[in-house]
Structure formats: structure tokens, C-alpha cells
Amino acid sequence: GGGGFWLEGYRKIHAEIRKQVGPKAILTTECNWEGCIADFDALLSWAWFDDHDIPLFPAVYSGVTQNFGTQCANSEIDDNGGLTFCRKMARLFVWGGQLGWCDLTALLKKENRHVLEFFRTLCRLREPHAYTFASGRLLRPPAVSPADSLLCSAWFDPVHNLDRLFAVNPTRKPVRARVTMENGRRVSLSLAPLEARVVPLD
Fold first, then answer.
1. Helix or strand or coil: residue 76?
2. Which residues of the chain are modeled with pLDDT < 50?
């Protein structure tokens, strides 16, 4: 081991690719490896998803790189009313990732219409905040009580110079929760099943 020849070699290759395709091209690669952040515009972080994950990578590198995608199978859309798919997309949303990067044809089935509508809702809600996710800063995760179903995050919006709370209920039951921000501010939320909301914290 030792030496930087491997990383240096890759960086030379990336520089040559960038030179040939031009400055407007968007280059991506698979998995969230810190060594290539300077050479790529986005990272396909498709492998990470566990109930005990924390948003460490987005917190450290928000505003530096863009994560997109997650590992997903059609069975997660078809089985159990699509709850696994909904939860994965909800977490991608609140952590600032670009949604999708999986086979979405199962969403077109009549019995999955509610899952498709939820996915559309997240996509439409994300669009006006794309710059925040790309150039803003993911803040310390809020404390949620009761800590059961609600997925949420707080982001600093550099354009409007304010914090925003992103909250999603990816379940089939209504959720009522109190969210406490790092600065002590509290927000009471009541979300219907498969509802998502963005709350400005001015």
C-alpha cells in the first residue's frame, strides 16, 4: 500500500474526459467515494439504505456534490402497498438526494396508483428546492417526538438566507409529532398518510 498513484491516475483520466466532452457536461459515477468528489458533478449512492443510517455523507458534502438514487426493486413497489419504496424515496428526499434511479414501471400498475401519486408529490415538492439541495447545507437532524414514522431534515437555503424543515410521512397512518430544531425552536406537525411538507423557519 501507500502512494497516490491510483487516485492520481484516475484524476488524470477524469481531466481528459472533461476536456474532451466540454465544460457543460455533467459527469457522474457510482457510489459515494470522497476521493472523486472534485472530479464528478454527482454521485450515484445507490447502495446505502439501512434503518440505522445517519445522513453523515450529505451533511459533510452538501453544497459540494449531489447524491442521487438508491437501491430499489420492483417488489418494493408491489409488495405491502409500496411502503418500502415510499420510505426509501422519502429518505432520499429529506436527505437532499435526487429521487429515482430504479425501474419505475411498476408504478404504472393500477393497484400502485397511490404510490405513483406519492412519488409525483415528492418530485414536484423537490423541484423548487433543487438549488438548496445542491448548494445549501444540511443542518443537524431535528429531534422528533414521538420518533416513529416521520422522516424529516433541516436545510439552510443560501438564496433566501433561511432554514427550511422538510418532513414526510411515508406511512398509511396519520402522524402527529413535535420537531425540535438544533436552536431549540419547536414545530408541531400533523401529516396525513403519504403527505410531504416544506416549512420555512424564518
1. helix
2. none
Note the pLDDT tens digit of each residue in 90-117.
999 999 988 988 889 999 999 999 999 9
Cα 136 from Cα 117, distance rounded (Å): 27
Across the beta sheet with 175-180, the strand order is 143-145, 175-180, 186-191
Q: What is each CA distance from 83 to 53, 78, 154, 172, 194, in whole angstroms?
A: 18, 9, 23, 8, 10
Q: How many Å apart are CA 87 and CA 140, to the nearest integer?
A: 20
Cα dihedral across residues 55, 154, 37, 2: positive or negative: negative
Dihedrals φ, ψ of 70, to 5°?
-160, 160
Contacts of residue 139, Cβ cutoff 8 Å, sequence gap at least 6: 153, 154, 155, 156, 163, 181, 182
Closest Cα to residue 196, out of 170, 172, 177, 174? 170
pTM of the model: 0.89
pLDDT given for residue 1 in this prediction? 57
- Of the CA atoms within 13 Å of residue 68, those in its CB half-sphere come to 19
